[in-house]
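Table S2 (text version). Query chain:
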Amino acid sequence: MGVDVKELLEAAVSGIAGQTRPGQVEMAQAVDTAMHEGSHLLVQAGTGTGKSLGYLVPALVHAIEDRRVVVSTATLALQSQLVDRDVPALLDATEKLLPRRPKYAIQKGRNNYACLHRIREGAPDEDGMLVDVPPAGEIGRQVVELRDWAEQQLADGAAGDRDHAPSHQYQAWQQVAIAARECLGAQKCPYGEECFAEKAKEEARKADIVITNHALLSIDAFENRTVLPEHDVVIVDEAHELPARVTGAAGDELSPQLVERAAKRARRFVDDDKADDLIDASDALRAALDGTREGRIEPSNTLVLEAAGLVRDAARGLYSDLNKKSDDKDDPDGAKRQSKGAVKEIFDVAERVAALSDADVVWMIDRDRFGRELRIAPLTVAGLLRELVLRDRTAVLTSATLTLGGDFDAIARQVGLKPSDKLDDDAEMPELDEADERGPLPWRGLDVGSPFEYEKQAILYVAKHLPAPHRDGLGKKQFEEIVDLITAAGGRTLGLFSSRRAAEAATAAVREATDLKVLCQGDAQLGELAREFVEDPETSLFGTLSLWQGIDVPGSTCNLVIIDRIPFPRPDEPLMAARQRAVDEAGGNGFMSVAATHAGLLLAQGTGRLIRRSTDRGVVAILDPRIVTQRYGGFLRASLPPMWPTADREKVLGALKRLQSS
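Corresponding structure-token output:
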């Protein structure tokens, strides 16, 4: 029985009382074609297109042909939205048109599920002893509540998933959950048959559609496809986030505190000398970091690299000792296995740092509460994505913001697709030589637009009369501009700032000059601030990076988005600086490939906060004149929705006043 994608989409939209959109139909048909011909697809679907149905409907068609589809999202929130709302509604609406009802499941990383072994046997203290008594105070109360919740979840046959747990802090969850490396494994754990994480994996193996997140997709790739069930299609939603999430998954950290903790946990299983060697190495690492400036570690930083080598060697010796006479009977509570996992992780990271490969960037940061530590991440993840994610399966990558500078090339390069492999719109999929594993990866790019009329709904105002930003932060003229804009709008403003200091200074300036209510990120939990912002249209919200991408405020709550400056990465940010330099050394333009691409993506995300419905109206005000005065400005403007542009301050203030009174 053949199933027509367009017919299925119409049934889905009708079933959820929606409205068919041309862009959504075009997207669904393109996704279906890519899945069947085996080409990769980058599809930009603007806000309001109905992107989720645009890929879920063809995923259903593919799934009923007994070809499993994995859908990956950047955030656990969207992952849960798909599982709890979108997919069930879609299946209900299309059930009569399908030969069978496809099965779906959600799969997250192990640390997102409560661990029955940790709950029943206890969590390790600083010396590695499993302690059943919860810590004192509020954290301890939360731990007790989480333990009771987990047992009830087990009795109810529920998922034991953190998203459905009682309100808690991170420290409390770590008392009832476990990292994958420290897990005993289903065969060795006395509670393996009841394990929430193992049940989630088993449900995923039975499912036609598995919904996961970018972090677990990355781990699956690095672990030779042993984490997620086998699949031949992956749909990557919020694909603009994929390179950053893969970088995070492929990165690591090494600090004296982590090294010392691992040594103490292992001490009761080995001779003291072996544990003391690792503690001595942690002291050497601490001394080396104390004598090092923040920033990238170069080959000339011999003290740091030698200290990392000491940690590597001591961890190797300790791990070898832990493996001697390693018998399950000697480790009834699993504490030794968990200790081995911690020491092995220290060894792996220290070995990677000490090697200082050209493929990695190592840098040192100084954290206020936790002191100095080393970070390591790949110089680029394009090759990893190309070979581990895209090489032998079809990928559909979609987002509301994938075209930068007017085309897909910048994003394509970041995810491992070469512009030279791009297929023309009417080109047929080439016959590929299966023996040539390193051959091209054909792909297409498709922009299905947006149902919104940006030229009529939104004004892009560039405050060209203001001075260019400087390192000292916002000045008097910028504060006056912000006050005038927000006053004309009557509040209703989302302020997106390049730093916490700038957001706080602008908040103080508006509070001093007006009676308007302004919330600032850091005043309370972000969720609470967002709710208050939405509930009171005259309230404004100022903040930093998480607001650029992570907040949805349709309607009169937000008539004005203020962006204080072009969000270039900081020149002293080690990973971005290293990537930019590598492009320059290869003969490219590092600034455009790295800094401008980063800024263009954030600007597209930030300006996208304004128009969320067809009835929305408003202004995006960019206070950085460089977007129209510098040569790279054309690239950045081409990355934004096609709003009506102006530098006329009086027209903008008048438009905001009219919106306020309407």
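Notes on Table S2: Confidence is low (pLDDT under 50) at residues 432-436. Residues 454-661 form a domain with the Rossmann fold fold (CATH 3.40.50.300).
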